[in-house]
Amino acid sequence: MAWGDGGSGAPRKRRRLSRSGEFDRVYREGRSHANRYLVVYSFPRVGDHSQPRLGISVGRKVGGAVDRNRVKRLLREAFWKVAGTLPDGHDFVIVARPDAGLLAAEQDEEGISRALREVLHQAGLARGGAG
């Protein structure tokens, strides 16, 4: 049984981007949308209609390691809450801008979630009532 498969015995398909080539493709060929806190890159995978996949980039300007890891965790949680409203077969990379660290410190999960929903709706990527 693979770790993280929920006990079903079948390995769960990877829902995140981990290789630099995967990030590069999304940056190079995808579309970007931004607000004050986040930049979201989206790239449709041709012929693949599985769940969206996520990559996160949080640079040192956001803060120290503890702050960066907290922002990454909040972004993952916020993304998977709205993933059902996003188009299948897409790769997403979320880049946290320096102000995202301040937003996380001041407004915690709700602030990060609101910023992510805002940029996804402005980009026309989210369907339904995720706003």
Write the layout of secondary structure elements.
Layout: H1 20-29, E1 31-34, E2 38-44, E3 53-58, H2 65-82, E4 90-96, H3 98-122
Parallel strand pairs: 3-4
Antiparallel strand pairs: 1-2, 2-4
Helix pairs in contact: 2-3
Offer a quick outline of the entry.
By secondary structure, the protein is α+β, with helices and mostly antiparallel strands.
Assembly context of the chains: single chain
Question: Count of DSSP E strands?
Answer: 4
Overall average residue pLDDT: 88
Secondary-structure element order, as H and E?
HEEEHEH
Class by SSE composition:
alpha+beta
Notes on the protein architecture:
With 131 residues, the protein is α+β, with helices and mostly antiparallel strands. The protein has a single domain (20-122), classed as Ribosomal Protein S5, domain 2 (2-Layer Sandwich). Helix content is 40%, strand content 18%. It has 3 helices and 4 strands, in the order H-E-E-E-H-E-H. It has helices at residues 20-29, 65-82, 98-122; strands spanning 31-34, 38-44, 53-58, 90-96. A 4-stranded mixed β-sheet has the order 1-2-4-3, sandwiched between helices. Helix 2 links the parallel strand 3 and strand 4. Helix 2 (65-82) runs parallel beside helix 3 (98-122). The N and C termini lie far apart (38 Å). The model is unreliable at 1-11 (pLDDT under 50).
